[in-house]
Amino acid sequence: MSGLIITASIVKTGKGRYVAHADVFPVMTKASTQRGAVKKLREAVLVLLRDAAEAGLLMNMLEEAGYTIDLIGFPGNRQPIIYNEHNVVVPVAAGLRALNRKRQPTDEEENSYALN
């Protein structure tokens, strides 16, 4: 069996939960433990890959994520080719926080950014 090696960023929230984010795929999960968040992330990435395959977009998605197409399907684990890494600072205006306070999200909306 071959596999894709992905980098996951894991953050502990103020609510004692862990959020795992796949760096090369648009997937985030959360759980009460780091291990649980990573397990859910693995499952969520697999669902994303299956959905892409069913839509005929798997190879395009993997190529855009940095995986070499010619090696996909061969035994062994594959990593994306990363040319450089940067910490990026995104300036956030103070007005965003005030805007956020105007409306509290429902539980469903609050959880929609991450898979449970």
Describe this structure in words.
The chain is of the alpha+beta class and 116 residues long. It has helices spanning 34-54, 58-64, 94-102, 107-111; strands spanning 2-4, 8-12, 18-22, 28-31, 76-78. The strands form two sheets. Strands 2-3-4 form a three-stranded antiparallel β-sheet. A two-stranded parallel sheet has the order 1-5. Strand 3 and strand 4 form a beta hairpin.
In short:
With 116 residues, the protein is of the alpha+beta class. It has helices at 34-54, 58-64, 94-102, 107-111; strands at 2-4, 8-12, 18-22, 28-31, 76-78.
Low-confidence blocks of residues: 112-116
Radius of gyration: 17 Å
Order of helix and strand elements from N to C terminus: EEEEHHEHH
Could you give a short account of the major beta sheet? 3 strands, antiparallel
What is the rounded distance between the termini? 27 Å
By CATH, the topology is Double Stranded RNA Binding Domain
Question: How many helical elements?
Answer: 4
Mean pLDDT over the residues: 77
Strand content: 15-25%
Shape: globular
Write the layout of secondary structure elements.
Blueprint (H helix, E strand, L loop, with lengths): L1 E3 L3 E5 L5 E5 L5 E4 L2 H21 L3 H7 L11 E3 L15 H9 L4 H5 L5
Parallel strand pairs: 1-5
Antiparallel strand pairs: 2-3, 3-4
What characteristics describe this protein?
single chain; 116 residues; alpha+beta; Double Stranded RNA Binding Domain; three-stranded antiparallel β-sheet; two-stranded parallel sheet; 17% strand; disordered C terminus
